[in-house]
UniProtKB/TrEMBL annotation:
A GO term, aspect molecular function: kinase activity
PANTHER family: PHOSPHATE REGULON SENSOR PROTEIN PHOR (PTHR45453)
Keyword Kinase: yes
The enzyme's E.C. designation: 2.7.13.3
This protein's name: histidine kinase
EC supergroup of this enzyme: transferase
Segments forming domain Histidine kinase: 213-442
Length: 442
């Protein structure tokens, strides 16, 4: 499903942005083309005025000057003295000139005034227009100049083949740029949409794993309850009936606890965990948790200690109930996995940089580096704890959600990391044990 969605999103992104790119390219091409044509037309007018001024000021026209004008300005100049072609044209008559004879006649016919026999009395007249012959285009000027009784008529062509070449090069350049951009865009869209979909795909996979794990965890107590009910129906012994009733009640409470945890996490995913924030003294919360778990630790032959700083601790804006739940999760986890005669430490550090740090450490085996991030995943339990029916693998995940709702952080490391800051940690065995370290903003 995600592969198909990935392809569709890639095509959609490429097509959408590509369409915008093509439209913008066409607009740029239109204005660039208009600018090039206008610039070339202005250049033609400027050069034409230069030639006409020179023609009007000269008493005689040399072949050298005509050759220079034609070569310098890329003009084709045809002059007529009182209606007769100049001798210059006869000297340079060739196949090309013969082919342009029809073009000159077409230009003369297109002009508004008879340039050879006009009797308007004007001393000079010329008009410019565009002309196309076969596949060639020209700017054309047709007119005459009068000096005394002499009339010098002219037909001047400005070949636009260089303009067409420039425009063609512009088209090819923009087309190539668009094609290369679309290729790069498609590759970028492929990788970008993949990165966008990756969290969704990961979330869906985790959701499937969550449902599978939750179903498995719910199936176990449900199986015990159903089998107990069947046995209850068959047995007549009051002792056995009482035993199975207690067993079903215990499994029912386990199921209720699991469902409550799942609902809490589901609500945190959908709407965020709701907090009732108030100014809280963290050292008092730690003392309350210490007193609650001190007898539990003694019953399991564990040493529970607490370390508080000597200086006053500023109040922290938290939800006391959620922080107490967080400490209960971590202490319960420590009590369950600390070996006999081990030590558990609940500590609070002085406030630094507008943040306050506290944690729970215990002796025993440390968590492998490969599992330090995974232990906060839902229903994740270390291999050695898979047979533990008291933990569902949701506690540390809930602890992370509580800390995240308070805009804090939680991580797991070794006690030796903070041995220099917390004196009690120096009594732990070197490079053994687990430390859950938490930070909250003040």
């Amino acid at each position: 499903m995600f592969d198909k969605l990935h392809r569709q999103l890639t095509i959609f992104c490429t097509a959408t942005i590509g369409t915008i790119l093509v439209v913008l390219s066409l607009l740029c091409l239109f204005y660039a083309r208009q600018s090039i044509i206008q610039t070339d037309r202005s250049s033609f007018q400027k050069q034409l005025n230069t030639i006409l001024t020179s023609l009007q000021s000269q008493e005689y026209i040399s072949h050298q000057w005509l050759n220079q004008m034609q070569n310098e300005y890329r003009f084709s100049i045809y002059l007529y003295d009182n209606g007769e072609p100049l001798y210059y044209e006869q000297l340079h008559e060739d196949a090309s000139n013969k082919r342009q004879a029809s073009l000159r006649e077409k230009a003369i016919r297109k002009s508004q005034v008879d340039i050879f026999y006009d009797n308007s009395g004007e001393s000079a007249y010329h008009e410019e227009f565009s002309l196309r012959e076969n596949s060639h285009s020209y700017y054309t000027s047709v007119g005459y100049l009068t000096q005394n009784t002499d009339r010098l008529s002219f037909v001047i062509f400005y070949d636009l083949s260089h303009l067409q070449h420039n425009l063609y090069s512009l088209y090819v350049l923009i087309l190539a740029a668009d094609v290369i951009t679309l290729i790069i865009l498609s590759v970028f869209s492929w990788h970008f949409t993949r990165r966008v979909l990756l969290p969704v795909e990961t979330s869906r996979q985790k959701q499937q794993e969550f449902i599978a794990a939750a179903s498995h965890e719910l199936r176990s107590p449900l199986t015990v309850i159903l089998s107990g009910m069947e046995t209850l129906d068959k047995t007549q012994s009051p002792e056995q009936r009482h035993h199975f009733c207690c067993l079903m009640q215990e499994e029912g409470r386990r199921m209720q606890h699991l469902i409550s945890d799942m609902l809490l996490l589901a609500n945190a995913d959908a709407h965020g965990m709701k907090l009732h924030l108030q100014e809280t003294s963290l050292d008092e919360l730690l003392l309350d948790s210490f007193e609650k778990y001190e007898s539990i630790a003694l019953s399991r032959k564990l040493s529970l200690r607490i370390s508080l700083p000597e200086e006053d601790i500023p109040f922290c804006r938290t939800d006391p109930e959620r922080i107490h739940q967080l400490l209960s999760i971590l202490l319960d986890n420590a009590v369950s996995y600390t070996p006999e005669n081990g030590t558990i430490l609940l500590f609070l550090m002085p406030a630094r940089s507008h943040r306050i740090t506290f944690g729970v450490a215990n002796t025993g085996s440390s968590i492998p580096d490969g599992e330090k991030e995974r232990i906060f995943d839902r229903f994740y339990r270390a291999e050695k704890s898979h047979t533990d029916h008291e933990h569902f693998g949701l506690g540390l995940c809930m602890a992370k959600e509580i800390i995240r709702a308070h805009h804090g952080s939680i991580r797991v490391t070794e006690p030796e990391v903070l041995a220099s800051d917390v004196t009690e940690l120096q009594k732990f065995p070197v490079e053994t044990g687990t430390l859950f370290l938490m930070e909250l903003p003040l």
